[in-house]
Each structure stands twice: as structure tokens, then as C-alpha cells.
Amino acid sequence: MNVEISRAVLPQDTQIVESLFSAYLEFLAERAPEHREAIDSKYPSDRIPDLVAGFLRENTRPTGDILIARLGGAPVGCAMMRQIEPGIVEVQRVFVAPAARGHGVGRALTLRLMEQARADGQQVMRLDTGAKLAEAIGLYRSLGFRERDAYHSDYAQLDGILVYFEADL
Predict the structure, then answer these.
(1) How far, rounded to the nearest angstrom, does the alpha carbon of residue 109 sit from its chain's CA centroid?
(2) What pLDDT digit, counting tens, does each position of 25-39 carry?
(3) Are 165 and 147 in contact (CB under 8 A)?
(4) Alpha helix ranges (H) inside the chain
């Protein structure tokens, strides 16, 4: 099945982004139940619409992006990017629904963000991911990301839970 990647069209795709983000939070809680409290403190479930509204402001063109992946026309994944300083962007919230895993969706989303960042003149791409997300870590390493020290301390409750990566574009 072919993966279709497209930029989120706002505000029409807001519900899709909310739904995928909610599924992302469920996935994180299932994968790392011992960190549920930290995840909930960063992303309170009763504030999902507000959180997504914030993503839609900070992860959009011209310095960011929000992508939606579809298989057979159905939304199955998303990825976001934002500029954190001139020349440096951060990948955020890459998620692929369980039923779509193994079809290259995460790779396609990340590659598309990398292509867009290069086209935008960015030189470096950073990201953080959960230390327990072996598949994500493997994907990022296969795309040339290398582990680095923490580049932010936005959420102290997640110290020790996250692994940080960087790639030159």
C-alpha cells in the first residue's frame, strides 16, 4: 500500500491532528506506563484541543510544518517540525497508528520533514524521543541522526526518559 504524505490543511485538518495526537498519547502511556504521570503532566488529556491549537500555531509554515500520512486515504500518522533557532529545526510528535506500522510511514514522514527543512535552508535537525521507543531510535539512527546531549530542559519531569538526537541537513 502506498503512503501518501501531505501538509495539514488548517483549520480543516484540526480534528485529524487532534485524533492522531490523542492516539500518540495513548501509545506513549502504553509503552511506558511507569512514566504516565510525567506524560500526563506534559500533555494533560483535558487540554488536548488547546495543546493542538498551540501546535497549529508554532509548527506551521514558513518555519515549521505539520504532516499527515494516509494509507488508502485514511489518516494513519503525523509529524511536526518547528524552528527552534535560526538554521535549526526540531522534529516533534512523529506518530504512526499501530495498524499502519511496518509500511514505512514513520520513515516517509521524517524524510519529508528533512526535505522540507533543507529546502527552507535549515542546517540542523534535532529531536527527542522516548528511551523506550526502540523502533523510533532505530529509524532516526538509520536516517543519519546521532545521539547528543539534551538541547532543552522544557520538561524537567521527563529527564532520564528522553534521548536526544541531531542530524546535519
Answers:
(1) 9
(2) 999 888 888 888 888
(3) yes
(4) 14-31, 36-42, 48-58, 105-119, 134-142
Enclosing H/E stretch for 125: strand 124-130
Give the orientation angle of helix 14-31 with respect to helix 48-58, to 10 degrees: 110
Summarised one tens digit per residue, pLDDT across range 81-91 is: 999 999 999 99
CB contact set of 92 (below 8 Å; sequence gap of 6+): 55, 59, 79, 80, 81, 82, 127
- Give the list of residues 6+ apart from residue 81 with CB closer than 8 angstroms, or none: 59, 64, 65, 66, 89, 90, 91, 92, 113, 116, 117, 125
The owner of cell 523506550 is 132
pLDDT value for 38: 82
Give me the percent of the chain exceeding a pLDDT of 90: 73
Q: What is the CA radius of gyration of the chain?
A: 15
DSSP designation for 39? H
Compute how many other C-beta atoms are within 10 angstroms of the C-beta atom of residue 58: 14
Q: Residue 42: what pLDDT?
A: 84
Question: Residue 37: what pLDDT?
Answer: 86
Q: How many CB atoms lie within 10 A of CB 165?
A: 21
